[in-house]
């Protein structure tokens, strides 16, 4: 490839003919051809003449032109070519020459110089050297002539030796050049050839660049690049991504809010010098100016926050191109029908003011440009608004004479650099901008000149913020130094001196923010911590025999002699625990930790706490006694409180009380034994203030903590053990008592031995013999023929044993429904509960007991199974059947302890709450289904829920023991011995089998910084990978930010529910749709109320669609519950309500369970102060937006984050209509869905969205609550939502510096203006700040705040103006 032509002229060289040949030199060509150089007569050597050029080059007989002459003539015929130049170089082989050609453009006088014309280097080294400089020049001229005229027959015009070169060597050189792709060197017009060559090269480079760009675009579509350079592989379906648009009015309102309420660096992060340097380098590479970068780093705590700060504060004309939308021109655009107004705005904005600000001020000035100019100037200086009449000289001409005098002076001084137009003084400065542009000073006459400042503007090709900096500093200088005297000349002189400095060091962006935005920037760099100071109880003072203690002691001794108390003491003495009272009290007194293990019925739960309290009273420490006893279930806490209060001949709420979620009976200072659920004590510690010392202080008034049923190893219990162990290190006077029916004491002893002394007490049980009746024996006794142990072994029980059955849960894998079993046709697969068989067993037991009293206790896995069983038992006469489960109201739970009506037998259908802690005294027979609903993690939908499975052998042993409390009893086991052997020995600790998000959130809520280290100290530490995954998930859902608990996370930590449900309830309270969110949370906790019988699946689908309305599955469930609830509240008869449920394929019992769970959630929200105490249900102020489906869909998307799928629509098709082409809805099967983890996923056939061809509210995403895999990966419980729902409530928003838009949650890409993403991101911080206020101000009604109203509009209208 030839070198580029140069664009600069060279000095002409002397022509070849003017050169003097070397002495004695001969033509090389002549020698080669044997032609004498000259026909000379031999002379003496001293008298020989030097041959002339013609003779030297062509011989004495040559009459034609020499090569140089021919070439020069050819060049002269070209109108734009200059005279050629010849260069000669000497080398060991002789002389070599070259020709330089130049051409001059007659219009531009631009000179183009070609590279030197000479043969290839190899040829020159071998044949190109000439004996003399003259011959070298003619050789070069011949070659140059051949280069330009090789297509002509000019060889005959050359001397013979050059003629031979033309026809020989030069032709070969041309062939070689053509073969190597350099044939352009032999074109007739070398300048045009070079031009064509360059154009072809540029065209080729463009084509290469286009291909490279296409390749990069293709790569971009298959990878996402974040600001930190990480590349994430995505599917081909991401080639078309949704766009983000924001209405002009909406954007202005958002900017106003961000600039007035925004908080920067809320965690007060202090960057190291190394971090600052790295951030500055990165920002500079993104196209930001150093001065702006320095200001951003001062205000922010991270690279991402710096980018957000810059994109909000920078004027649009100084924002890097990648941050602007395509084809965007910074400035102001108006409709062409108001050109006068547009021109005024442009003139006002020319000095750097924002066009929006200019338009706003101009309108406020009634279109008066002069008034607007003064108002803008006052705004720049941050002065208070004044009346426009005071700031414009048009109504007051005082000072005009002085102004006119100064104008004449300025004209005389600056002459042609001065002019005046429309009453405005204009002076052109001598100073130039760095780009050599002009700077013009404009001054408009004010009123009362020179006691007031003129309206000044600076016109220059400089960025807006620099012009405003110049103007601001000039005005401040004039205001402080020039008022009262003619000042225009001094201003111009000041500008000539100071402008270069200001260009180098402009004002901070905050200083000129008033002029670059319609909103003043009142945001702050950081806010002080608003952590509310918690009031902790007064610490115990162990003063013996205080007046209160003395009165308690006297009262206690007096009570001991009463007949009622003596009677109770006789009952208590019959318990095995009574015999070990001294040992228990001694161990508690001598050790900080005491472990008490005892069989069922030993009295450990009721007696141990009384032993300790009585001992404290007798020793004179009654005032200090405050014993908290935890129970795993509400009914246990209530039942034990009732029993212990009875044994002490008192009332519940006095000396003995209880506290459960939503209900409390105790009196401060009076209640000495309080039974609480484990969660209540945990919440007390969680809400203590957020530090380790706060946890200790929150227990300051507690003397003893008793943890009952620790063998169950629930997540809450293990969590409490870690917390209390740390508290024991600091509170040596605090006593801990661990109690359980089946306890591995050694494990707990080792756990606590490092921090305190540990004592152990074992209590023997007091039970009567219990006879086991297994299923096979029961079948034979009851006359079920054909089913024996052999049949059982050959059944599918063994092969299916390991299956994890979840048929009691809506979101489990679907299974085929079995046909209804007829009477005495018992299913023998061991996987389903046969309610008819249970009823028959109850009937058999009742007949066997005959006239003897005694109740029957049935253990079932859940409330649905209890309801089904009770339905079957209604047909059996003389039965007093009662339910027992944690969801019942306290009064309903207490009914199981009462004696049945005369002539009736009590039958209690219970979950595993009756296994331990509570004792129903009159039970003589137990029916054990062997099933339990246990908390577990379902990875298909990433949620903690109750899953039905086989109970452990330890649990079955506890159930069995309930039959032998009053006399010998029987346990009817509805499973075989083989099934029992395959049961787990005991349940695995919950901390090892459930996700840890909720636990980690609770740990963070207590102020623990290093969560992994804290959990590693647990009795059974969870897997480290599980902990890190949980913390990552908490960050993604918005509960954590940089390892700090957000306000949203603090609220979520206090609500005892699945994270997604608690998040939804927080959002519901904030956005005025709490009633709907409570129902949804309860539905998700229980299951969908809809049923879908296999024989009527299509009918059920139609019925479900009626409620759904295209809004998704979750809102469909919500609307169905709302109608059921409304009918119920109107007093519709139960039979009619059930009939309506059947007609609409709804399960009435499930709806009842949802209502109960919903009530519990309301109680929880009241406990934490999120709702006001008192009243029933949810106040109407929290339900203003209950019917706003778009808002509900957005909140559901936020709650389910990150369970989101992108909707990929097929290419649009159109059909002709009278109004033009109309888009056709795509077919449902052509709409595709993609999620982060699995790529393409599919809508479950049972979803209301399965046949959807379109979605409401510009929805382009789909949130899902559950995911399952069969032949494909299906998503269900779907809710469609739009772009702004994702931006407001989705994952973190990242800005792509390469101009491709926004990246949400690390994988969802959106096309749009980067500034929109920043504004939304800052809105989210303001919303979190509002939630933080709610922590400190529980009565705050968030739904009426400006931020909530704005966000509601944005998600309802997808960011557009309405």
From TrEMBL:
GO molecular function, one term: RNA helicase activity
Bias (Basic residues): 1-11, 529-538
Domain Helicase ATP-binding: residue ranges: 585-761
Residue ranges of every copy of the Helicase C-terminal domain listed in the record: 844-1007
UniProt keyword list: ATP-binding, Helicase, Hydrolase, Nucleotide-binding
Cellular component GO terms, alphabetical: ribonucleoprotein complex
InterPro entries assigned to the protein according to its UniProt record, in alphabetical order: DEAD-box_helicase_OB_fold, DEAD/DEAH_box_helicase_dom, DNA/RNA_helicase_DEAH_CS, DSRM_DHX29, HA2_WH, Helicase-assoc_dom, Helicase_ATP-bd, Helicase_C-like
Record-annotated membrane-spanning stretches: none
Keyword match Lipoprotein: no
Protein name stated in the entry: RNA helicase
């Amino acid at each position: 490839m030839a070198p580029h032509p140069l664009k600069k002229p060279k000095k002409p060289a002397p022509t070849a003919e003017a050169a003097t040949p070397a002495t004695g030199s001969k033509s090389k060509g002549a020698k080669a051809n044997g032609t004498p150089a000259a026909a000379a007569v031999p002379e003496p050597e001293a008298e020989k003449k030097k041959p002339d050029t013609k003779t030297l080059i062509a011989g004495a007989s040559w009459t034609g032109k020499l090569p140089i002459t021919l070439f020069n003539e050819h060049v002269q015929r070209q109108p734009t070519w200059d005279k050629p130049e010849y260069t000669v170089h000497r080398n060991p082989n002789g002389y070599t020459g070259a020709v330089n050609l130049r051409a001059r453009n007659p219009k531009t006088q631009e000179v183009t110089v070609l590279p030197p014309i000479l043969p290839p280097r190899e040829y020159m080294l071998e044949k190109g050297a000439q004996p003399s400089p003259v011959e070298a020049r003619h050789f070069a001229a011949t070659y140059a002539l051949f280069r330009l005229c090789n297509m002509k027959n000019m060889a005959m015009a050359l001397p013979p030796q050059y003629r031979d070169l033309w026809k020989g060597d030069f032709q070969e050189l041309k062939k070689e050049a053509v073969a190597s792709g350099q044939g352009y060197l032999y074109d007739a017009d070398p300048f045009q050839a070079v031009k064509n060559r360059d154009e072809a090269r540029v065209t080729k480079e463009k084509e290469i660049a286009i291909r490279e760009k296409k390749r990069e675009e293709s790569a971009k579509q298959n990878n996402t690049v974040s600001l930190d350079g990480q590349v994430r592989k995505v599917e081909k379906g991401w080639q078309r991504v949704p766009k983000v648009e924001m209405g002009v009015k909406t954007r202005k309102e958002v900017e106003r809010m961000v600039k007035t309420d925004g908080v920067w660096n809320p965690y007060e992060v202090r960057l190291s010098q190394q971090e600052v340097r790295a951030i500055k380098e990165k920002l500079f590479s993104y196209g930001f100016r150093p001065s702006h970068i320095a200001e951003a780093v001062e205000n922010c705590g991270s690279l991402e926050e710096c980018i957000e700060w810059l994109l909000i504060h920078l004027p649009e004309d100084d924002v890097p191109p990648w941050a602007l939308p395509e084809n965007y021109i910074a400035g102001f655009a108006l409709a062409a029908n108001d050109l006068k107004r547009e021109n005024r705005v442009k003139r006002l904005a020319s000095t750097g003011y924002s066009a929006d600000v200019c338009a706003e001020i101009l309108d406020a000035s009634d279109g008066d440009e002069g008034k607007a100019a003064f108002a803008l100037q006052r705004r720049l200086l941050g002065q208070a608004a004044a009346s426009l009449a005071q700031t414009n000289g048009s109504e007051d001409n005082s000072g005009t004479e002085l102004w006119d005098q100064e104008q004449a002076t300025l004209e005389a001084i600056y002459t042609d650099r001065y002019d005046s137009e429309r009453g405005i003084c204009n002076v052109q400065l001598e100073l130039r901008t760095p780009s050599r542009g002009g700077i013009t000073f404009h001054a408009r006459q004010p009123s009362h000149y020179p006691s007031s400042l003129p309206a000044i503007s600076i016109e220059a090709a400089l960025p807006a913020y620099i012009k405003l900096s110049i103007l601001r500093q000039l005005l401040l200088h004039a205001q402080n130094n020039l008022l009262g005297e003619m000042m225009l000349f001094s201003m111009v002189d000041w500008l000539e001196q100071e402008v270069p400095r200001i260009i180098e060091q402009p004002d901070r962006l905050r200083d000129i923010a008033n002029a670059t935005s319609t909103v003043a920037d009142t945001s702050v760099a950081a806010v002080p911590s608003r952590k509310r100071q918690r009031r902790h109880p007064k610490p115990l003072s162990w003063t013996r025999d205080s007046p209160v203690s003395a009165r308690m002691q006297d009262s206690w001794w007096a009570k001991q002699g009463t007949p009622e108390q003596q009677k109770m003491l006789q009952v208590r003495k019959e318990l095995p625990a009574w015999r070990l009272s001294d040992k228990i009290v001694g161990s508690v007194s001598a050790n900080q930790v005491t472990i008490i293990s005892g069989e069922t019925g030993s009295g450990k739960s009721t007696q141990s706490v009384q032993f300790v309290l009585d001992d404290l009273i007798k020793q004179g420490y009654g005032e200090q006694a405050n014993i908290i006893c935890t129970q795993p279930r509400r009914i246990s806490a209530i039942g034990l409180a009732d029993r212990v209060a009875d044994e002490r001949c008192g009332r519940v709420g006095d000396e003995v009380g209880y506290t459960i979620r939503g209900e409390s009976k105790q009196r401060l200072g009076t209640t000495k034994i309080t039974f609480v659920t484990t969660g209540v004590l945990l919440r007390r510690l969680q809400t203590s203030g957020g530090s380790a010392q706060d946890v200790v202080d929150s227990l300051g008034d507690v003397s003893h903590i008793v943890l009952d049923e620790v063998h169950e190893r629930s997540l809450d219990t293990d969590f409490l053990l870690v917390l209390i162990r740390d508290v024991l290190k600091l509170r040596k006077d605090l006593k801990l008592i661990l109690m359980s029916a089946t306890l591995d004491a050694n494990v707990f002893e080792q756990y606590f031995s490092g921090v305190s002394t540990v004592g152990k007490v074992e209590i023997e049980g007091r039970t009567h013999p219990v006879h086991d009746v297994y299923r096979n024996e029961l079948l034979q006794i009851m006359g079920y023929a054909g089913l024996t142990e052999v049949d059982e072994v050959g059944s599918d029980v063994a092969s299916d044993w390991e299956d994890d059955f979840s048929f009691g849960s809506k979101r489990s894998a679907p299974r085929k429904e079995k046909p209804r079993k007829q009477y005495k046709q018992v299913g023998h697969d061991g996987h389903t509960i046969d309610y008819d068989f249970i009823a028959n067993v109850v009937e058999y037991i009742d007949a066997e007991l005959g006239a003897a009293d005694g109740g029957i206790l049935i253990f079932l896995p859940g409330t649905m199974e209890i309801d089904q069983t009770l339905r079957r038992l209604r047909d059996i006469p003389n039965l007093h059947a009662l339910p027992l489960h944690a969801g019942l109201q306290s009064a309903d739970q207490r009914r199981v302890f009462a004696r049945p009506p005369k002539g009736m037998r009590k039958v209690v259908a219970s979950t595993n709450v009756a296994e331990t802690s509570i004792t129903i005294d009159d039970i003589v027979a137990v029916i054990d289904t062997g099933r339990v609903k246990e908390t577990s993690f379902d990875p298909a939908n990433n949620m903690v829920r109750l899953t039905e499975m086989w109970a452990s052998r330890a649990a079955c042993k506890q159930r069995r023991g309930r039959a032998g409390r009053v006399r010998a009893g029987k346990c009817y086991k509805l499973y075989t011995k083989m099934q029992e052997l395959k049961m787990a020995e005991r349940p695995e600790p919950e901390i090892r089998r459930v996700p840890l998000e909720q636990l980690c959130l609770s740990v963070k809520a207590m102020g623990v910084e290093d969560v992994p280290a804290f959990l590693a100290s647990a009795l059974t530490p969870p897997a480290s990978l599980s902990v890190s995954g949980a913390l990552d998930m908490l960050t993604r859902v918005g509960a954590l930010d940089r390892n700090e608990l957000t306000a949203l996370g603090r609220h979520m930590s206090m609500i005892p529910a699945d994270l997604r449900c608690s998040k939804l309830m927080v959002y519901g309270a904030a956005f005025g749709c709490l009633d709907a969110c409570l129902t949804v949370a309860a539905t998700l906790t229980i299951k969908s109320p809809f049923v879908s019988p296999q024989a009527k699946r299509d009918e059920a689908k139609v019925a479900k669609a009626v409620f759904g309305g295209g809004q998704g599955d979750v809102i469909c469930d919500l609307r169905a519950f709302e109608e059921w609830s409304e009918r119920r509240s109107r007093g519709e008869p139960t039979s009619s309500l059930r009939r309506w449920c059947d007609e609409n394929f709804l399960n009435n019992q499930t709806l009842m369970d949802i209502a109960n769970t919903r009530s519990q959630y309301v109680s929880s929200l009241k406990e934490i102060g999120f709702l006001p105490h008192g009243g029933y249900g949810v106040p109407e102020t929290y339900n203003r937006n209950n019917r706003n489906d778009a808002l509900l869909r957005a909140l559901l998307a936020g709650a389910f984050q990150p369970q989101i799928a992108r909707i990929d629509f097929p290419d649009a098709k159109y059909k002709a209509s009278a109004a033009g082409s109309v888009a056709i809805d795509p077919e449902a099967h052509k709409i595709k869905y993609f999620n982060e983890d699995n790529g393409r996923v599919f809508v479950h056939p049972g979803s209301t969205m399965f046949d959807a061809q379109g979605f409401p509210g510009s929805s382009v995403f789909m949130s899902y609550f559950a995911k399952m895999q069969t032949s494909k990966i299906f998503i269900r419980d779907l809710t469609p939502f739009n772009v702004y729902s994702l931006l407001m409530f989705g994952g973190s928003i990242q800005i792509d510096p390469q101009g491709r838009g926004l990246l949400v949650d690390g994988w969802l890409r959106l096309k749009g203006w980067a500034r929109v993403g920043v504004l939304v991101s800052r809105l989210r911080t303001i919303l979190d700040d509002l939630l933080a206020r709610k922590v400190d101000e529980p009565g705050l009604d968030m739904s009426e705040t400006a931020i909530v109203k704005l966000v509601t509009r944005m998600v309802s209208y997808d960011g557009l103006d309405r």
